[in-house]
Amino acid sequence: MRFDIITIFPEMFGSVFSKGVIKKALDKGLIEVHVHNLRDFTFDKHKQIDDRPFGGGQGMVLKSEPIFVAVEKFKRNEKTPVYLLSPQGRKFDFRLAEELAQHPQVILICGRYEGVDERVIQYLVTGEISIGDYILTGGEPAAIVVVDGISRFIPQVVGNVESVKNDSFYEGLLEFPQYTRPRNFRGMEVPEVLFSGDHSKIESWRRKKSLEKTWLQRADLLESRKLSAEEKKILEQIPTEKRGKKDESD
């Protein structure tokens, strides 16, 4: 899969993809990440990529021409998704990441300043992506998040595909608690069921803890989930004191 990132600060990506899982995926040729300087697609001697907004107002707006030229140069076919990183966009989640991982190419445009010329949004991009309800100084950090999130769904990028399926949100639930050695740390014990050797019991415990954590920390995720009779029963069995903590946070 190929990622093309269009930005006015390409140096921000210099070392970001040089470590960890993404670096291994790059070395194996499973993904490609190409970062392009928007100024390379201007035609004036000053390489101007922004200008003052028509009608007045604060700040500067990224011009439409260099963005159109850059996208048109790198877009391989009409089905290639092109997204602007913007706080006004669709919130990035595992569903969108998995959806975009099905494409051989994704183009990401990093917004800056007061935004981009509206014609980019209306006539060029597939849509806008936001990584949260807050404002960043630019779309570069968001682009990094999107590339990382999508890459996990590309075959062989993550060594064990089961680890992706067990990730938080994959089934609409937060991930169950994880433990490793030592078994006893400062009197804090690992749950005994994890040493039982009974995989059915362990799976049942993990499902229960996953539901419990989701209900306590992200109850909104359960609103869109069709709960089975067993899951409803598990939620009803959450200890009263934990229910109280959740109510207080509300």
What does this structure look like?
22% of the residues are buried. The protein is α/β, with parallel strands linked by helices and 250 residues long. A 5-stranded parallel beta sheet has the order 2-1-6-5-7. The chain starts with a strand and ends with a helix. The protein is elongated, with a radius of gyration of 23 Å. The protein has helices at residues 20-27, 64-74, 94-100, 118-123, 140-151, 161-165, 199-217, 220-223, 229-236, 240-249; strands at residues 2-7, 32-37, 50-51, 61-62, 82-91, 105-110, 127-130, 184-185, 188-189. It has 2 domains: 2-151, SPOUT methyltransferase, trefoil knot domain (Alpha/beta knot), CATH 3.40.1280; 184-249, tRNA(m1g37)methyltransferase, domain 2 (Trp Operon Repressor, Chain A, Orthogonal Bundle), CATH 1.10.1270.20. The chain contains 10 helices and 9 strands. The model has no long low-confidence stretch (mean pLDDT 91).
CATH class of the largest domain reads Alpha Beta
Question: Total helix count?
Answer: 10
Termini separation comes to 42 Å
Whole-number count of domains = 2
Give the name of the CATH superfamily of the largest domain.
SPOUT methyltransferase, trefoil knot domain
Major β-sheet strand ordering: 2-1-6-5-7
Portion in strands: 15-25%
Q: In percent, how helical is the residue content? A: 25-40%
Structural class: alpha/beta
Strand/helix succession: EHEEEHEHEHEHHEEHHHH
* Sheet with the most strands, sense and barrel status: 5 strands, parallel
> Gyration radius, to the nearest Å?
23 Å
Unreliable residue runs: none
Shape: elongated
What is the CATH third-level topology name of the largest domain? Alpha/beta knot
Q: How many β-strand stretches?
A: 9
CATH architecture of the largest domain: 3-Layer(aba) Sandwich
Mean pLDDT: 91
